[in-house]
Every structure is written in structure tokens, then in C-alpha cells.
Specification:
The protein is of the alpha+beta class. The chain contains seven helices and 20 strands.
Length: about 350
């Protein structure tokens, strides 16, 4: 979906590729071995990029991370106790799967990770839906479910044994299809309704121009905004300037997002020309503009601003810690999302594939 508007600052018409109104519920089951100071088993549930549930083998408790999550389960007494009990059993099977995978890859000790990612997406404009069910081992794809053929895809020879075993269970594969195309979507819609006060809000960003040293790139840093649809760009004398490096959109600890764009330019150059950073966020009618001037740039060679720079670094570290603590991501990036499920009569009423041995 394209979003077009007239900039109040430049008079130009800018076309911004905005995020479609697509909702997703995603779960990540992660089992690991010999990772220092990290739980052997972690489950994280995400709704539209916001964490809603968390479980780890240290606490052995599934807990809600959002107040509205309690509303989704208020008609189901003992929900959290039952789900916690299910996950205690699941973590033992995941631990066994690491041992099986190590044998197939002819490995012994060391750090190893086995992960299940699955869930569904729903486009509330087109009503299109998608489901995903995928396993990974040590940062690489291991096996994935094809909803169209109801067969399993094994990209590595070590997963072929699992493929043959799971392909033969046609009844279970049919239940998988029913879960991803119906049950998961139904619960996704319920969750979106429960959490709409959080998910449908619009929060403007705080925008700063930062520079480490006089010869370092100038960073335009936008943080604290929601939703995640954003464009952070640079202009030179009123024209789009493309010789910049864009950072990824990262999630802050409070559920908002941040993004940076780095401009490499000499002090002499930006003092002779008008450089400005333009930030556009989904839901905000006006662009946020910061003109590159000496007074606007925050530096860490200027003592009073050291605290500000440290604050930015700490915020980034918090994001990294939150990601590492929640889920170990595939090295291979994918455009599709995934979600966790278990074997109850709730949203996670999946086949329980993740509880089976590979």
C-alpha cells in the first residue's frame, strides 16, 4: 500500500511505501544446549511485533506480558497453569530433539540450538491469510510444512528421515492445515480486538542528530514511535539525498520502535549546503524535520551531551538483550512470520507437532 502526502517543509510530494494492514501472531520455541546464563528452553509469543506471553525453563511458568492478554483467557480458569504444565513436557521433547539432531549431524558437545517457529497472518483489507510452520537447527532451516501440498520440505539431508515420518501422518497434517487456516486466524482476530488500544495507537518519535566525532557520519535517530511503519531519509538543498546508510527498524523495550539513517558528509560540505533529515511515520500527518546545523547536532565530544549519547547506546543494548533473551533467530532471513502453539483448546490448539521427536 502506498501512502502519499505533501511535505509541509519542502512542498514536495513524497511517496512512502507503508506497511500493509497485516496482523500476525507468532510463537518462537527455542531449545539450547551449553549456552551460558541462558535458559535451556524459551517460548515467546508475539502479536504484531509486541510480546504477549513468555515462558522459560528456569521459571517453568507461562506468563502474560500484556494486561489485555488476561482478558483473552478470563473465561478459561486455570489457563496459565495448564499451559505451563504442557510446556514443561514440551521442553523435555525439545531437549531430546537436540540430541537427535546432534547425532544426525555427527556432533558431540558445544552450543546447539533447536527452534520451532509457527503462526499465521491476516490482512484485514484483502482478508488474505497465511500460515507458517518451520523448524531450524543451529541457525539453518531444518524442515518446513507446505500448506498447499500438506507435505514437509527438507532442505538438508539430515531432515529427510523426519520428512518421511511426518509425511506419513496424513491425519496430523490435515489438522495442521485446519489450525493455520482457521483456528489460528480466529484467535488472531480475537487478540487484535483485545489489544487494539495498544496495537492501534499512534506515538510520534523523538528525533535527534548524533555524531561521535567531527569526522564521523551524522546519524538521524528516530525512537519511541509506533506503529513500526517509518521512513527516515536525508535531503540536500530540498532534494532527496540517497548516498546514506539505513539501519534496520529495531524494537525498544517498551514496545515502540527506533530507526537510524547515517549521512557521511564533511563539516565543510554540510555547512555550505542545507542538509536535513525527514522522518515520516504511519498515522502522522506531518513530517518531522531536523536541519543539520552545529546547534542541532548532539556530540559525545561535548561533555554535557555525553549522557545523551550513553542513553542511546543503553537503549540499543536493551533491544539486543530483549531479542537474545526472547528468541534465537535463524541466520537466514525470511519474509514470513511464525507463531508458537501447544495442545490446548485455546488459540494454540495446534497438532502438537513441536512436541514430537524429529
Amino acid at each position: 500500500m502506498k501512502y502519499t502526502r505533501m511535505s509541509l517543509y519542502t512542498g514536495r510530494t513524497s511517496t512512502m511505501s507503508m506497511y500493509r494492514v497485516t496482523h500476525s501472531v507468532k510463537y518462537f520455541y527455542t531449545a539450547s544446549s551449553e549456552v551460558p546464563n541462558f535458559p535451556e528452553f524459551v517460548v515467546v509469543g508475539m502479536l504484531d511485533g509486541v510480546q504477549m506471553v513468555h515462558y522459560d525453563s528456569n521459571s517453568q511458568r507461562l506468563v502474560p506480558k500484556q494486561d489485555w492478554m488476561n482478558k483473552a483467557t478470563e473465561t478459561m480458569p486455570q489457563y496459565w497453569e495448564m499451559q505451563s504444565g504442557t510446556l514443561i513436557g514440551t521442553q523435555q521433547r525439545f531437549k531430546a530433539n537436540i540430541d537427535i539432531a546432534k547425532q544426525r549431524f555427527n556432533q558431540s558437545g558445544g552450543v546447539h540450538v533447536f527452534q520451532w517457529m509457527y503462526g499465521c497472518e491476516w490482512d484485514d483489507e484483502t482478508r488474505a491469510t497465511e500460515g507458517s510452520d518451520q523448524f531450524g537447527y543451529d541457525g539453518e532451516d531444518f524442515i518446513a510444512f507446505d500448506l498447499k501440498t500438506l507435505k514437509w520440505i527438507a532442505p538438508t539431508p539430515q531432515a529427510v528421515i523426519t520428512k518421511h515420518k511426518w509425511d506419513s501422518n496424513t491425519a496430523l497434517n490435515e489438522r495442521n492445515k485446519n489450525y493455520y487456516t482457521q483456528t489460528c486466524i480466529e484467535w488472531l482476530k480475537k487478540y487484535v480486538d483485545y489489544g487494539k488500544s495498544t496495537l492501534m495507537r499512534t506515538v510520534p518519535p523523538s528525533v535527534s542528530l548524533l555524531q561521535k566525532t567531527p569526522s564521523s557520519p551524522v546519524t538521524c535517530h528516530a525512537t519511541g514511535f509506533y506503529p513500526r511503519g517509518v521512513m527516515v531519509s536525508w535531503q540536500k538543498d530540498g532534494q532527496d539525498h540517497h548516498d546514506v546508510e539505513h539501519g534496520e527498524i529495531l524494537q525498544n523495550d517498551d514496545g515502540t520502535f527506533q530507526k537510524s539513517s547515517h549521512l557521511t558528509v564533511t563539516p565543510e560540505e554540510w555547512k555550505k549546503n542545507k542538509y536535513q533529515c525527514v522522518v515520516q511515520v504511519t498515522g502522522l500527518k506531518e513530517d518531522i524535520v531536523r536541519v543539520l546545523t552545529e546547534s542541532e547536532v548532539k556530540t559525545n565530544w561535548d561533555a554535557p551531551n555525553i549522557v545523551l549519547i550513553i542513553g542511546v547506546v543503553v537503549a540499543l543494548l536493551l533491544v539486543i538483550v530483549a531479542v537474545v533473551a526472547g528468541v534465537v533467530i535463524w541466520k537466514k532471513k525470511t519474509k514470513k512470520g511464525f507463531v508458537p502453539a501447544s495442545t490446548s483448546d485455546t488459540d494454540s490448539d495446534n497438532s502438537g507437532r513441536g512436541a514430537q521427536k524429529i
